[in-house]
Design a protein that fits this description.
16 helices, ARM-type_fold, HEAT repeat domain-containing protein, ARM-like, Leucine-rich Repeat Variant, mainly alpha
Length: 281
């Protein structure tokens, strides 16, 4: 009995922290902790909050529903866990899609990126042209997990969005998350390769390289230098062309691997060299 009381007190405390300074770092930490407290009590709290007149409580209900899990080993929250109450939480998220408050709606949309359900797709597609950029971004995030033709068509439009974050995620969804390989997708990725936003351009490059588009080689021959990003190194690895070996080796010879250097970047460089037929130095 004592264990239940403690657990309920912890649940209430986390919910209070999440709501107290809404969307602060402390609030997000509390929400992440709530995600790992999958239980009838947590689900009941989310269901109760979803009907609250307080919009922050309704948004919190959506955030909890989106990723509610039960840890297999309670003493280690970051270890293995299982999704909890999938059908019940998806039902909550469906309600949230019709909420009049945009923040609540956005949280519900985001939830369907974590817990996709076919019945949500028509609503997500309808919201792809919403006037609020935050809503469109969340739709792009969610549609990355829906592989129907209609989802691809919506992402092709979102990949031209005026909002950088929305355009970036839609390009990532088309290029990396989706397996479809059509002329329309390749053309959109090729257009976004010239985007002024480095991340959008990088995601487009990755998507084309994933599809082994030979035009990528010429682009990489221009972009591969000491200041290139991981996008270029990953694309070089995926293309695995001997034509890229010389610039990759030149980068390896020129860059320092001293203390404070980006070890991940260097690892990706080594992997790209190996894929293109080079050897360890």
């Amino acid at each position: 009995m004592k264990k239940t009381v403690v657990k309920q007190a912890s649940l209430k405390s986390l919910a209070s922290t999440a709501l107290q300074d809404w969307e602060s770092e402390m609030s997000w930490e509390a929400i992440r902790a709530l995600h790992m407290l999958g239980s009838p009590e947590t689900l009941a709290m989310a269901q109760r909050f979803a009907k609250s007149k307080n919009r922050h409580k309704r948004a919190l209900a959506m955030y909890i529903a989106s990723q509610l899990r039960r840890a297999r080993f309670p003493a280690r929250w970051n270890s293995d866990s299982d999704e909890y109450a999938i059908e019940e939480t998806q039902a909550l998220l469906m309600e949230g899609l019709n909420d009049p408050v945009e923040n609540v709606m956005a949280a519900a949309i985001s939830g369907f990126g974590h817990r996709p359900h076919p019945s949500a797709l028509p609503s997500l597609l309808a919201l792809a042209t919403h006037t609020d950029a935050g809503i469109r971004f969340q739709v792009a995030f969610a549609l990355a997990h829906y592989h129907e033709d209609a989802s691809v068509e919506a992402l092709l439009v979102l990949a031209t969005d005026s909002d950088d974050d929305t355009r970036d995620w839609a390009t990532f969804a088309l290029g990396t998350m989706h397996e479809a390989d059509t002329a329309e997708i390749r053309e959109r990725l090729w257009q976004n390769l010239g985007d002024s936003n480095e991340s959008v351009s990088g995601e487009a490059l990755a998507g084309l390289a994933k599809r082994k588009d030979e035009r990528v080689i010429a682009v990489l021959l221009e972009r591969l230098d000491e200041d290139c990003m991981v996008f270029e190194l990953d694309a070089a690895e995926m293309m695995a062309s001997a034509l890229l070996l010389a610039p990759l080796n030149a980068i390896r010879d020129a860059v320092s691997r001293g203390e404070g250097s980006d070890s991940y970047w260097h690892m990706r460089l080594d992997d790209a060299i190996a894929a293109c037929g080079g050897s360890e130095k």
